[in-house]
Design a protein that fits this description.
Layout lengths: L5 E9 L8 H4 L2 H15 L3 E7 L10 E4 L3 E3 L5 H12 L11
Parallel strand pairs: 1-2
Antiparallel strand pairs: 1-3, 3-4
């Protein structure tokens, strides 16, 4: 198995008991997953997108983290935000507008 160049983690607020309770889920983060997956394919990015449990950044939800760069993005409330982040990733940069860490 080949490892992707990037792992994109999208916070979905799931807790140990399986209940989605946090901000990311309430603000629709799971709805971004198919959009991000399609964008990855359309852009030809070598990336894997996964849904995660709570990332403990509720003040910034929805949250997305890109590894191995360890770039944390927040306040992702539209597809426009996702596009801007993926544009920056394609160009080898960072989207300062949504950067939280």
């Amino acid at each position: 198995m080949e490892k992707p160049a990037y792992h994109i983690f999208v916070g979905s607020s799931f807790r140990v008991d399986g209940d989605p309770k946090g901000m990311c889920h309430k603000k629709g983060s799971t709805g971004f997953l198919p959009y991000i997956e399609n964008e990855i394919l359309d852009r030809g990015l070598d990336a894997l997108v996964v849904s995660t449990g709570c990332m403990k950044a509720c003040d910034h939800g929805p949250v997305m983290v890109i590894y191995p760069n360890n770039i944390w993005y927040g306040n992702l409330e539209s597809e426009y935000a996702i596009d801007e982040i993926l544009d920056a990733l394609e160009d080898g940069g960072v989207s300062d507008a949504y950067l939280i860490a």
